[in-house]
User: What shape does this take?
Amino acid sequence: MSITAKDLPASVLTKKQVKTFRKDYMEGKDRMSIVAEVRYDDECGNGHNSFAITADIRRNGREESFGCCHDEVAKHFPDLAPLLKWHLTSSDGPMHYIANSVYHVLEHGPKYAWVYFTGQADPLNIGKAGERLIGYKDAEDARKAEGQPGYRLVWDEKSSKVRNLDYARSSAVWPDATDEDLTAPGLEQRLIDRHPALMAEFKQAVESLGFVY
Assistant: This one.
């Protein structure tokens, strides 16, 4: 089962729909300014409206940072803070809503290992003995050599996956999700089930800015 168009509130495709918010302030002796830009439109031309909040921060007239800057946006524009969770949500839903949420919940050990072998280079003992790299193997092949005489494995810890439930909550736009909500079997179905209500909430958030949804 997957999310279909019937689960989505109707959205009017818009090429440009932007609001800006500016604040000037002092930071020590430096003149600071922050301009937050909020948009809900099809600026990218991909066939659906997307919501984004970015900011341009300047120090003494020179650009200091640009992009999400969401901590600074929340600090200087507290009314925008509740909307930050919708960043990169489109009229189709949060970006890669199910795939990203499920990915961040997953965890596993190393999937690859370097396999070394110590022994004669050939059956006739003509070559030199010594440890040599057999190859960089996936876990299935590497485990065939695990514990076998002459073999040594070095697991590639970078190929392991650590669970990050905070990232999962962010991807799912589900800040109050419990650990069990995210880790219990059936997460994909739970994400699908909550999607209609999530998009109705998103529509209200967009319209609260005076935007056409």
Remarks:
- Residues 113-156 form one domain.
- The chain has a mean pLDDT of 93.
- Residues 19 and 210 are 9 Å apart (CA to CA).
- The two ends are 27 Å apart (CA to CA).
